[in-house]
Design goal:
The chain has no helices and eleven strands. The protein is mainly β. The strands form two sheets. Strands 2, 4, 5, 6, 9, 10 and 11 form a seven-stranded mixed sheet that branches. It has a four-stranded antiparallel sheet with strand order 1-3-8-7, with no helix packed on it. The radius of gyration is 13 Å and the shape is globular.
């Protein structure tokens, strides 16, 4: 079975940094398009960033220039480096495999996610 295990969240002051990790198992990781999503209180889940098997990246406008997605295929892990964090970044962050042409559709059930709380 597929497992997606997120970690690295926590409480941080505005302007601070965190690095999230997602370890995947049960998939051929190196060939998959991977993405980070987040869901903030009162908001829909949104795609934050994605990275192709070849390393091409996409970022939502809200995080562009502040977040960096990367992957280590040898470790079946995708990372999200988050800098200059803002209170509006507060959310539960999830990773998933992305399917389809549109590039936003998650393939598997959501894992537990990791909570990021940014204080003022």
């Amino acid at each position: 079975q597929v497992q997606l295990v997120e970690s690295g969240g926590g409480l941080v002051q505005a302007g601070g940094s965190l690095r999230l990790s997602c370890v995947a198992s049960g998939i051929i990781f190196s060939t998959n398009l991977m993405g980070w999503y987040r869901q903030a209180p009162g908001k829909q889940r949104e795609l934050v960033a994605r990275i192709t098997s070849g390393g091409s990246t996409y970022y939502a406008d809200s995080v562009k220039g502040r977040f960096t997605i990367s992957r280590d295929n040898a470790k079946n892990t995708v990372y999200l480096q988050m800098n200059s964090l803002k209170p509006e970044d507060t959310a539960v962050y999830y990773c998933n495999v992305i399917v389809g042409v549109v590039g936003v559709v998650p393939r598997y059930s959501w894992g537990q996610g990791t909570l990021v709380t940014v204080s003022s």
